[in-house]
Sequence to fold (203 residues):
Amino acid sequence: AGVFILVGLYMLQPNQAAILNLFGRYAGTDRTEGLRWANPFYVKRKISLRARNLNAPTLKVNDKRGNPVEIASVVVWRVDDTAQAAFDVEDCQSYVQVQSEAAIRSIASRFAYDHGVEHEPTLRGSADEVAQALQEELQVRLAKAGVTVEEARLTHLAYAPEIDSVMLCRQQAEAIIAVRQLIVQGSVGMVESALTQLERNGV
Fold:
């Protein structure tokens, strides 16, 4: 009897769970921390419920306009459904990594890197919108693995080296045009102000 009891004892740390199997059949999940006891015939597999970081590698993808860009992100995730994480996918952590890369590629193709049409979100200028879209895309992809995505943000964003110099020249040209437009607007405003003043004086 003593041996039977000792074999059934196991320990769970905070934010840790034990998946219980009985002869190949899923019997449940124990999430209560501390010293625990279960039927010695149960196979106990421990799984972490703590938040984990995934630093996705830098990927070269095409944005909405077809420009090659380099993009990387960090994803904060945790296991929510232990049964799905253990039995619906082969390796939960590997599944998260592969699906995260696929989600990043999908999101990058929806947004232009920069200089979109009026009120159009871009990868560089709409960080919060891009992060929200990435988190939602990840949540849909990782739901099958019982994973909850707590946060997802871009950590690196740049034009690919082969077009970086060309895009830099383009940005400089657009900046010069913007400055000239500002000068013209200022000049027009001064003339309008002068005409208004002359009209008030009866000239």
User: Anything to note?
Assistant: Helices lie at 2-7, 82-87, 92-108, 127-142, 161-200.
